[in-house]
Amino acid sequence: MSTASRDMGLMTPPVVKTIQQRSLLVGLVFGVIALVGAWQQPEQFFRAYLLGFLACLGVTLGSMAILMLRHLTKGAWGMVIRRILGAAMRCVPLMAALFILPLDGLALLLTRLVPERLKPIDASTPLYLDESAMGTPSMALVLALTPRTSPPPIIRAIST
Questions:
Q1: How far apart are CA 3 and CA 118, in angstroms?
Q2: Boundaries of every domain in the chain
Q3: Please, are residues 70 and 82 in contact by the beta-carbon 8 Å criterion?
Q4: Please, is 3 exposed, middle or buried when counting C-beta atoms within 10 Å of its C-beta (0-12, 13-18, 19+)?
Q5: In whole angstroms, how far apart are CA 89 and each of 16, 92, 135, 156?
């Protein structure tokens, strides 16, 4: 069997590499602009970051839910989008890492959003209302939802 028949033209076209490089450049430029904005107006930065983070998290966890539903029903209806959903689901660890930054700005947002008369002032405050403890259950949830996949083939080849 020749390599041409095994390849079946599934390689990406060369224009994809150009698009990838330009997208990286645009991402770096806007990343620097976001850092300048975070330094000048941290409250607005964290609001915008939280909105963008939740949008990306929704796509990631939504893809994971649809893929789990497809595996549960064992249907052929999801065969076409299976790879796309799997690729989106593999971003869960990245989303867990990106979740750390909003935790830093959470105290800043909570002090501005919650008036003084609503803040608990005694030591009997429930733990779930304490902003210093909000990250632990959230990170546990994200780590529990992280897909357990086998290592990439290159790592399997090295370890054997």
A1: 69
A2: 46-114+130-148
A3: yes
A4: exposed
A5: 22, 6, 22, 21
Cα angle, residue 128 at apex, residues 126 and 131 outer, rounded to 5°? 105
Token readout for 143 is 């780590």
Radius of gyration of the chain (CA): 22
Quote the CA–CA distance of 108 and 42 in Å, as a whole number: 8
| Six token digits for residue 22 | 């330009």
pLDDT in tens, the chain (160 residues): 555 555 556 677 888 889 989 999 999 999 999 889 888 988 888 888 888 888 999 999 999 999 989 989 988 888 888 889 988 888 888 888 888 776 766 666 666 655 555 555 556 666 555 555 555 666 666 666 666 555 545 444 555 5
Residue indicated by tokens 């770096």:
28
In whole angstroms, what is the distance from residue 107 CA to residue 129 CA?
12
Helix (H) or strand (E) holding 158: helix 153-159
- Which three-class secondary structure state does DSSP give residue 79? coil
Residues in the chain: 160
